[in-house]
Design brief:
The complex is a heterodimer. Chain A is mainly α. Chain A has 9 helices and 1 strand; from the N terminus they run ααααβααααα. Chain A has 2 domains: about 100 residues, Rna Polymerase Sigma Factor, Chain: A (Orthogonal Bundle), CATH 1.10.1740; about 90 residues, Orthogonal Bundle (Arc Repressor Mutant, subunit A), CATH 1.10.10.10. The chains are: A mainly alpha, B alpha+beta.
């Protein structure tokens, strides 16, 4: 456990808002990655990260160091904000059909070669396939496969047993595989096990 | 249960992970968190964004559609109610237009009448009923009078006495006839 994080949380709880800056600089980027993997809109992703820090500042949630890391705690708060955002979003109809405004910054050292463009397109197609997954499957892939967090940490964030994380991840990967195959991004040899899992 | 990833998916995942790793907070987010630290603004951004989107008209609430559908259904229901009331009103008006008085030939009792023959003599400009057994002192007439049970009395005809014979009882000078 990072003691600096715990100390900053304690300072924040004591009313020192400058501790928020330190937490944002340490974890803001990772939280934004998680949020961006969950949301189509970059603006929404940033808003949700902002809301996470607003909740932290308002002391709406309590951090218990015994229950996990500060990053896991922040991810949990953000996850609740994301769930609430999507519940709210159901009541709205986006007039632009795609609505995906996520465009990663190009790598500075790579020129815009054909290979790089092809990679970007593949990455964008993968993102579209992932965004079509149900929320609970999307979040488990974002945390386990993209952020590469341990199952125990993810279980803490999702507030469920490790076994549930494993089964959700398994199911999420199967759904993603099927989706990518339907987009012809991968060649899928459908074996009986996978067919049974997807049925 | 296996936790192995399809190799092609692993490649795609790595590409996407690399893209995500390049994602950095925008200057706007940095500034907003800076405002939070400075204690200037603590309003959740999603609320502001939704309000701004509504103002710009980029998004339209489903609740609005539901409300419009509700108003439409209410209007249809009101139309049906008004239609029923109008139809009922027309029936009432038709009923009101129907005359409540009985027709002219309507009677609570069967119509009946009697005809009387009254002897009369014309003298000094007037026709006066007389005793038929009395001596004739002027021009004598028979007055045929019909009295009905509807309360009407009419003089049917007046004929000279010498042109009409009294065939029925005439002891009192009034002869009853069937109409």
């Amino acid at each position: 456990m990072n003691n600096d994080d715990v100390e900053q949380m304690a300072r924040l709880a004591a009313g020192d808002t400058s501790a928020l800056r330190g937490l944002y600089e340490t974890h803001g980027r990772a939280l934004l990655r998680f949020s961006a993997a969950m949301c189509r809109s970059r603006q929404a992703a940033e808003d949700l990260v902002h809301d996470t820090f607003v909740a932290l500042l308002r002391g709406q949630t309590l951090f218990d160091p015994a229950q996990g890391t500060v990053f896991g705690y922040l991810c949990g708060v953000l996850r609740h904000r994301i769930s609430r955002y999507f519940r709210h979003e159901k009541r709205w109809v986006a007039l632009d059909a795609d609505g995906d405004t996520f465009t990663p910054a190009p790598e500075a050292h790579e020129p815009g070669t054909v290979e790089e463009i092809a990679r970007s397109e593949l990455s964008a197609a993968f993102r579209r396939a992932m965004l079509e997954l149900p929320l609970q499957h999307r979040e488990v892939i974002a945390l386990c496969d993209l952020e590469e967090l341990s199952y125990a940490t993810v279980a803490g964030i999702l507030d469920c047993p490790v076994g549930t994380v494993r089964s959700r991840l398994h199911r999420a990967r199967a759904l993603l595989t099927l989706r990518l195959a339907s987009l012809e991004l991968i060649e899928l040899e459908m074996d009986e096990t996978l067919a049974q899992e997807l049925s | 249960m296996t936790d192995t990833l399809h190799p092609q998916i692993a490649t795609l995942l790595e590409l996407y992970r690399r893209d995500l790793r390049r994602t950095a907070p925008s200057n706007d987010l940095d500034a907003r968190v800076g405002d939070l630290v400075a204690g200037r603004s603590a309003r959740p951004a999603a609320e502001r964004a939704a309000a701004a989107a509504r103002r710009r008209g980029r998004m339209r609430p489903l609740a609005g559609w539901a409300a419009a559908a509700g108003v439409g259904a209410l209007a249809i229901f009101a139309g049906i109610v008004i239609g029923i009331r109008m139809e009922h009103g027309a029936q009432l008006a038709k009923l009101a237009a129907t005359p409540v008085s009985p027709p002219a030939d309507f009677s609570m009792w069967p119509r009946d009448s009697v005809a009387l023959q009254i002897p009369a003599e014309y003298s000094q400009g007037s026709l006066v009923a007389v005793d038929p057994r009395a001596a004739v002192s002027g021009k004598r007439y028979w007055i045929d009078v019909v009295v009905s049970n509807d309360g009407t009395v009419r003089i049917d005809q007046i004929v000279p006495a010498d042109s009409k014979n009294i065939s029925q009882g005439s002891h009192d000078g009034i002869t009853l006839q069937n109409p």
